[in-house]
Amino acid sequence: MNTPFRVILLAAALCTVIPALRAQTDSAAAPVPSESRADSASATATAPALRADDSPASILLRPDTLAFMDYRHAGDIAATQGGFFLYDLGSPGQPGWLGRHGSSPFQSALLRDGVSTADLLTGQADLTQLATEDAAVITLYPMHQSFWHAGSGMLAAVDMTPRRWDAPRPYTRIRHAEGPYDELFTDVQFAINPGAADNLFLGVTRATVGSTATTDPARFANTRAERWHLRAEYRRTVSDLLTLRLSNEYTDQIVFMNGGIRRDLSAALPLFPDRSVAGFADSAFNEITAAFLNPHYRAQAIRNDSRAEASFDWGGDSTMVSSAALSFQLGKREATNSAQPLLRTAPDTAYGETLDRTDRWNLVSFRLRHRMDLRWAELDARADAGWFVAPGSALPSSVNGLTGSAAAMLRLPYDRFRLSMFARADHQRSETASGAGATIEILRGTFMPWLGIAFTSRIPSLIENYSEGLDSIATVGFAYGHPFAPTGNVAPALDATPVSAQRAHERSFIAEGGVRIDASWLEADLRASYRSTAAMTELYNTFSSDSDFAGTRWYLTYPASSERTLTVLGLSFHARVMLWKFSLENTVSLTSYESGEASPLAPKIDDEALLYFRGTLIEGTLQVKAGGRFSYRSSFAPTGFDPATGVFALPGPEESRLSGARSFTDRVSADLFLYATIKDAATLHVVLHNLLNARFITTRFFPAPDRGITFGVNWVFLD
User: CB under 8 Å to 183, separation ≥6 — which residues?
Assistant: First the structure.
């Protein structure tokens, strides 16, 4: 985003916010409810389409919970829940993806009001795409229901339902946070009712790490990022039956990616007996001696979503609601790697690729939804159809086609329990995938057990289908626009033209169950899952050539279909024991790969424990939450990030053999935190991260943040 445009946007935001700060007369202001001003005084929110708030199988996080959490994006929030695992590049502002009990990047989805935010080319979601500050509720659906919400084959679905603002008088909310490595986060929201039947909402988010305009080092010289997220919504209530909405979201982010540390560790550092890469810890976390693979990657991503929606409440009581929406989505991503030859500290350690590529995609779609609540049944049905165009250089040529889906769920309530049956079908170009499942759950009582099963398949993403030539790792690189040089023993044919090759669809069977316990002194959630996935897509980083005379080795990333069946067992347990105003929380996730001989994408053990005080002080004017957090993560085979394709990948056989990168060692870390809310209007927070200065890795080969402090304020103005 150029500087003049930023100035214009900031000026517009300030012109909108400043009037909200003026005092309003009592005669002009509507009465404010007595409960928390920050969460409910001027904003109301509709329930998700499935009414997940009364389902023990779903996990719900509301604003009063989020206000006492330290997070940067939706991935940070979801990763605190059982079974979820966040892969990132260590430093804030960098790319990441969210997994669940070893799910792949292609099997996770982030939704906004039921609409996927995934990139059309890769099928992966940007964790920063959701404006979490607008959330009325964030819903984490169970694994066996995720495909129904997010698309066939999905195993991890996170949906943010935005608030439906109702502000008779101006509502302004500002959240600002600062952290180490020159990290800044600022979000400004403004809502007002211009008329009795109208509401206008505006939001601006700016997040930076270092400076993208200068050479400010941030953490490393090339670990810098800047993101703008602008959104606006206008809603008009035509009558008790008809509501119209116009909305637009625009995201522009620039990321400078740390190329990681030395790839060929065996040349310089001894490996541990378990073939882990713990031996490089001193080098990895030393900003002077760490050897960069590539310090020149820069990526810019732009996303714009426009939507016009009409909602019709047939009876005026929300028991039968129909909606129709027309959407236009635009995505653009530029990846550049300007320097070659790159920094080389030893033979076979340089990343010998020059890249300058732009990927684009457009999607126009129309969606219909109908929800009906009867005495004996609840029906939720939706269908959408659209046309996409993807002319970017990630594909061999311009690709376009029809995309669409149809889904329906029938829920039958019987006194205390409910039976749900659901099915979905997805279509893209000439391929179709489908899924079906069922859930039975107890809705009330101290103990609320539930069980669910599902069968689902997944259409490969465009970037998977257009990586033809699995028998020739040199040819396949052209599907991503890599300009390989014909050096070494494996010389690619420069005139090779990849063609589309339909891959076998992943097919998954999920059996899942759990129980939620809600007592006066104990809150607990236990859930277990069994998943079997056939014809899974495996991602690998591997070599395309041997070393040339200068010691340069050429790399590429490609997805490979497998005929193997992967079986994964998952178990997660969350408990909160309350004694007076003290609480002890513990969340444990266990993941076990029973077959398939695949590299584990998640640690076998992931544990987080919190001990804190939460209560009110000074005659109820001050709400405090203060305590500590301890986390443990066992060793696992982590993914690496390939900036050229924008995907996370497992190490290929050659790379694993050369570097010995089999697993990363256990992680132990500890934090201290303090949250304080003053008169239900301003929430202050201070978090001391990684007190032990633990050195651990989550993604090859990026060091995690050192010891640091994050602090901020979340302030609401109503008058």
Answer: 92, 93, 177, 207, 208, 209, 218, 710
Dist. CA 170–CA 351, nearest whole Å: 53
Q: Are 165 and 187 in contact (CB under 8 A)?
A: no
Q: List alpha helices for 526-636, DSSP H.
A: none
pLDDT at 644: 66
pLDDT in tens, 692-701: 888 777 776 6
d(CA 299, CA 222): 12
Instruction: Spell 166-187 as b/e; 16+ CB within 10 A means b.
Output: bbbbbbbbbbebebbbbbbbeb
Q: What is the mean pLDDT of the chain?
A: 77
**Locus of tokens 């669409």:** 404
What's the average model confidence in pLDDT over 574-588? 95
Which residue, 455, 355, 602, 367, is CA-closest to 147? 455
CA-CA distance, 343 to 353, in Å (whole number)? 12
Residue with the two structure tokens 């979201």: 249
Please state, as a whole number, how many other Cβ atoms lie within 10 Å of the Cβ of residue 247: 20
Query: 307-329 burial string, b = 16+ CB within 10 Å, else e?
Result: bebebebeeeeeebbebebebeb
Note the pLDDT tens digit of each residue in 333-359. Answer: 887 766 544 333 333 333 344 566 778
Alpha carbon of residue 489 to chain centroid: 40
Tokens standing for residue 447: 């103990």
Q: What is the pLDDT of residues 664-676, one digit of tens each?
A: 667 788 999 999 9
| C-alpha distance from residue 68 to each of 57, 71, 159, 491, 574 (Å) | 23, 10, 20, 55, 18
Q: Which amino acid is present at 370? A: H
Half-sphere exposure of 327 (CA within 13 A, CB side): 24
Sign, CA torsion 114/115/117/120:
positive
CA distance 278 to 349: 18
Distance CA 181, CA 708 (A): 9
Q: Write the burial class of residue 23 (CB in 10 Å: 0-12 exposed, 13-18 middle, 19+ buried).
A: exposed
Residue with tokens 């266990």: 590
Task: Find out whether the peptide bond into 701 is cis, omega within 30 degrees of 0.
Answer: yes
Residue 186 to residue 10: CA distance in whole angstroms = 12
The backbone torsions φ and ψ at residue 498, rounded to the nearest 5 degrees and listed phi first, read: -65, 150
Q: Looking at residue 408, what is its pLDDT?
A: 97
Q: Which amino acid is at 110?
A: L
In angstroms, the first-to-last Cα distance of the chain is 33
CA neighbor of 689 nearest in space, from 702, 704, 670, 676: 670
Distant-in-sequence, close-in-space partners of 160: CB < 8 Å, separation ≥ 6: 74, 110, 111, 112, 113, 130, 131, 132, 134, 135, 137, 138, 139
102 neighbors 279 (Cβ within 8 angstroms): no
Q: How far is residue 111's CA from residue 98's CA, in Å, rounded to a whole number?
A: 13
- The conformational region for residue 15 under phi > 0 = left, psi -120 to 50 = alpha, else beta, is alpha
pLDDT confidence tier of residue 548, bands split at 50, 70 and 90: very low
Query: E strand or H helix at 667, and its extent?
Result: strand 667-678
Task: Check residues 682 and 1 and name the one with the higher pLDDT.
Answer: 682
Q: How far is CA 55 from CA 58, 140, 141, 482, 498, in A?
A: 6, 11, 10, 47, 47
* Exposure of 372 in the CB half-sphere (CA atoms within 13 A): 10
Helix, strand, or coil (residue 53): helix
